[in-house]
Amino acid sequence: MAMMPKKRRIDDQMRFGLMWPNTKSQNVTSGTVAAANPNPLDVGVHQALARTVERVGFDYAFFADTYAANAPANIAAGHGEPRIYAPLWAPVVMLATEHLGVVTTLHTRYLPAAVIARIGSNLDAISNGRWAWNAVPGVKAGESALFGGDDVPDERRYDQARESIAAVKALWAAGVGEKVEFHGEFVDVAGTMAGPVPVQAMPPIFNPGVSPAGIETIAGHCDFGFTAVVDDVEIVRAQVENVAAAAEAAGREPGAVQVAGSISIVLGDTEEEAQERYQWFLDAVDVEAGAGFAKFFLANSATYAKLLEGLPWDEQIRRIGVGAGSSVLVGTSETVAEQLAGIQRETGLKNFLLTPFLWAPEEIARLEGVFSALAERGVWTPPSERGWSW
Ligand SMILES: Cc1cc2nc3c(=O)[nH]c(=O)nc-3n(C[C@H](O)[C@H](O)[C@H](O)COP(=O)(O)O)c2cc1C
Questions:
Q1: Do strands 224-228 and 60-63 pair parallel, antiparallel, or not at all (unpaired)?
Q2: Which of 66, 110, 137, 265 suits 85 as a labelling partner, its CA being 20 to 30 A distant?
Q3: For ligand 1, atom 10, which residue shows the shortest CA distance?
Q4: Which domain CATH number covers 153?
Q5: How far is Cα 254 from Cα 351, in angstroms, rounded to an integer?
Q6: Closest CA to 171 of 179, 163, 162
Q7: How many domains does the structure of the chain reveal?
Q8: Residues with CB under 6 A from ligand 1
């Protein structure tokens, strides 16, 4: 095995990440879909999936994370239990691959900066320079209580996140044996942290915030932001432009801050078969659990509520139930590639986080056809031909 550190490269080619399966059915509120997926506690399945993902041309695996369980109706529907813990399962994927980036979520409100810095530098060492941090504040009521409560008011969560990110960067930037002092309003760090220092020097930082404070945090302090790709491309374009303008205002180099769009794909050998498969997912949604999840999801982000507003409530439940409100591209490899190229043309988005519905390795392998079709259009180059860059 020759694990290679990843470098950042800014070009016009598409990048793809896979929202890593951390539970039986992460992206469809459905016991039927859950039953059709592998066991998320099977290490061998993750290893096989990791090798598949690297082989077909993904750039990174993205581990979302949450400490709190889903609502009882979701659990009853087989949605979200059990759920593997991102930083501990990341090495399973790292050790099965040589070039794939592995992004893990670590919450700034729950983990002290020194813990985040130390987990990060060790994951970067284990992967030989392929780790990145998804720096989220943590949003769920009920989650912070697991940590004994939270003294960061919700509206200040990104102020706290920015301090945490700054302190983590200071810890990573310090040489071996060098003392660090960071005294903020929420984060206080003084001392000399044990090595290793990160292989990448400064691992990339992702942040999926969509509120103004979230965007300011991405623009000023992170390398990648996220937006849900929704069917109204104007909304997506506005989000991409917002982040670019905020990054420019923050004095960042052009292209230094990229936006990744979360999106789902349902493939068929024919258009008709793809539509039938998509309908199968819509029909499989557990409506009761889906309604609860949709309410919970929208209550946790006014921004997402706004992104979906105008759609009938029934439609909102289905859309959140299948793919958490993101667009679902349905078609053959050819027509899905066409749709992706269209989204790139119309929005400027070129980094996509695919949220899978069925995630057995042989299901994910089908995406190879989409990548080939994108390569023919000149918008995608295999990672091996661009230095396996981020
Ligand atoms: C692609 C994507 C992945 C996310 N992953 C996580 C996660 O793993 N853990 C988490 O607590 N929140 C996660 N979130 C929620 C965000 O952290 C954020 O709270 C949400 O996008 C709303 O943005 P806002 O906080 O700026 O209102 C994710 C959001 C998106 C779009």
A1: unpaired
A2: 265
A3: 138
A4: 3.20.20.30
A5: 16
A6: 179
A7: 1
A8: 64-66, 105, 136, 138-139, 208-211, 214, 226, 228, 262, 301, 303, 353
Q: Would you say residue 323 lies in a domain?
A: yes
Give the contacts of 58 (CB within 8 A, at least 6 positions apart).
16, 17, 18, 100, 383
Q: Which two tokens stand for residue 251?
A: 């004095």
Q: Is residue 346 part of a domain?
A: yes
Write the pLDDT tens digit of every residue in 85-128.
Answer: 999 999 999 999 999 999 999 999 999 999 999 999 999 999 99
Q: Supply the residue whose CA is at minimum distance from atom 18 of ligand 1.
A: 209
Q: How far apart are CA 76 and CA 52, in angstroms?
A: 31
- Answer yes or no: is pLDDT of 1 > 80: no
DSSP 231: S
On whether residue 10 sits in a domain, the answer given is no
Tokens 């590639």 -> residue: 337
Q: How many residues does the chain have?
A: 390
**DSSP codes, 188-229:** EEEE---SPPPTTSS--EEE---SHHHHHHHHHH-SEEEEE-
**For residues 45-58, average pLDDT:** 98
- CA-closest candidate to residue 113, choices 180, 176, 165, 185: 165
User: Would you say residue 303 lies in a domain?
Assistant: yes
